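Deliverable D4.2, example record:
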Amino acid sequence: MDSKVLIDECNKAGVKLKNSALASITPEERDIVIDYLKQQEQPAEGAKDQADQAAMAPQREPQKMRTIKAMTSRPQPSRATPKSKAEDDRPESEEEGRSSVAVEQDEEEPQTAAETEQAAEAETTAKESAETAEAASGPLKRKTEESPKPPEDEKTESEQVISRDDYVPAGGAPTSSIREMKPIGSPRSSKPQPKSKSKTALPSVAAPPAYKQPVIPKPKKKEEKAQKPEVRLTADILEQKSPLAAHLAQHTEQKKRDKDRDSIDEDSKQRRGSLSLVEARKQRREQRKEGRRGFAAEGGEQQEVVGRRPRRTKRKHDSSNIVHKTEAEVELPMTVRSLSEAMGRPAKTIMSILFKEFGEMVTINQIIEEETALAVAMELGVDLTFKKQKGAQELVEEIMEQEDAPEDLVTRPPIITVLGHVDHGKTTLVDTLRNSKVVEGEAGGITQHIAAYQIEYNDHKLTFVDTPGHAAFSEMRSRGANVTDMVVLVVAADDGVMPQTAESISHVKASGVPMVVAMNKIDLPDINEQKVLQDLTAQNVLPAEWGGETEVVRVSALKGTGLDNLLETLLLTAELHELKANPNRPAVGVCLEGFRDEGRGSVAWLIVQKGTLRIGDAVICGKSYGYIRAMYDDTDQQIEEAPPSMPVKVTGLDSVPGAGDHFVVVDDIEQARELAEERRHEGRTDTLSRHSGGPRTLEDILGSAREGAIQDLPLIIKADTPGSLEAIRSEIGKFEHPEVRVKILHEGIGGVNESDVYLATASDAIIIAFHVVAEDRATALATQEDVEIRRYSIIYEVVDDIRASLEGLLRPELVQEQTGRALVLQTFSISRFGKIAGCRVLNGTINRNDRVHLIRDQKILNQYPIASLKREKDDVKEVREGMECGILLSGFNDIKEGDLLEAFRINEVKRTLDSSS
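Output generated by the structure prediction step:
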């Protein structure tokens, strides 16, 4: 009971206490409180008995929440068990019910016989009613398993007050308990209070569930075994031979052999123990001999004999009848194994020859050189030939040189190249034939790119290739002459044969193609046709009207006069030469020009010579390769295929091909990639060797130090086409001077990018952009880094600016200019300055900044600068002719009367590349 509740009960009983758990009371007050508490418990117990009687009937009660009582605690389930056993079997826990706030009783009250009988009858009645309720309600369980309590006046041990320490909840033993508050005796009472022994509180354990013993299955009766069917032996079965007989016979024979071997082993063991070592050795030898004799007597069949296994002699093959090879063919690269298989000799023989003759220890899979293989073959008497594997270059050349069957050839349009001097009207002639105005789009009115067009005249197609006429585009003219079937040489009637005209004639003669001369500009008033014919004759081109083989057609490209005659002549010439090609073979042709387009990427201008080029073909063109993704004609219309003699623009190559490169359609793109990589490697090697100029010796270094370092002009060139790069490079190569040179750091196709600017920053180079522009970021970076980007559209300007830059790097030439002469009349010695010469100016003027030659006895002793120039006592800058002055020379103090002073100044004169060094 809680201390606060106990204090309240004490106050109700008339005992006034303080509100403290440690308040002390006297024994008399204690008895009063105990009597009061017992009176309060009687009505509660009576109500409980009535409830137990009512619970005897089996009925379902609604679930209720248990209320916590203040005075009494719920009895433990262990006390509610019926008293069916003797008093000795009563649980010990029934004697431990005490109140936490009550005073321990000194003596327990004895139980009477009537009380015992009454408690037994109550327990029996409760048990019977519980069994009846369980049988009637089935699964319903009653919570009233506690035994009914007797009346208050008949007390038993089970009715004693339960303390809070004795209560054990359903979840197990409590982890903590409320401290027991024991009353302290009154100081007036000297009687000592006995102390009770503390006992452990046992937890309440739930009743174990009903255990159902496992049912042991009864053993089944033994079933009778199935009887095998009786198989009767017939006469036929008995007559047949069973394989068992053979097995039994073999088994019997094996047992007999084992028995004989065991007996022999036992005998040998017995003998071995009694024989000496020498006798035992002799016995073993005899046994071996007997074994060999027995083996030979049976015709070579192996027998079970004691001794070693007989040796089997190997048959030696007679090698004298083997015919060795005298000729062999091996494919390169070869190994020792492949050489051995080709010559029909063992590999160890070849390896031994290599070791003896050459001192080389090789393995069977090691690659050997051709010379070594020839030496081995000569040693073995074999005539060895090598079969080289075809590389990518050989395969491409084989495709290009493949001959076509005559029945596969069909007539193709002629390819005509227009050559001539600059401004003689080549592009205007082609424009008039095409009804276009290409010349208006060319910078400066001159052609700077090679181009190809196809026109149709009288149901016949003709392909024209327009080439530049400027001297810088000699390579383009050479390519145009090599790719063509015939040449139209344009000569202006008012100008005659010019240097580029003569060069074009040489290209035509080198290519061996027919030529037709178009005398242009015949509409001009001041023309001289005879002069033109004479100039052509001087170049070994004899006109047909003068008895030669070259046709001369007079035309006017601007007005279209005589163009029909020119086309008729070209068609007739093509018909005479029977131009044919096979359209059903892999395409072969030439790249006239290449450039990079912003939307299409790498674009190549190709002209097909043999076969038909189609979209999707794998192409190798110089250092570029790829699949043809799109094709466009000369009018920029997309087409699917290009027959022979048709110029097309193609896209799909991995890089811009070089002008003049031949292209071939291949079956395997891997071959094209391999060949392109080889060509690129060779190109890089050539570029490095060209730029490096080879290793420098000590003499070269010392010579350049004596002569002065060579000034380099670093350039980065970006152009629109490889042909333009080629022309610029060719012009730059013409600038040769011992003191300056052009160093091309980088050249490429396309616009100027940031990497070009970074390279120019690191090397102080100038960027030349020909027909291209710089990117926005590159322009901003160039402004930030002070890099100069020069844009050009005409090749004249590029050449002139590069020339001017090179001449600016040349050291100026020093030229002495005489300004005057003075004669020394008298000398004056001054201690602070030295000897001063009093002179008279004979001619010219003497300036303060001039230098003078000291001439004595008609000999120039030396030259000295003027330290001081005075007239009387004033310093002056110059002294004119006929006047006198005083001159003090710097670094010379031995001037004499009669010496002649010749004044001069040094001028720097700009040098040119054409001037001598």
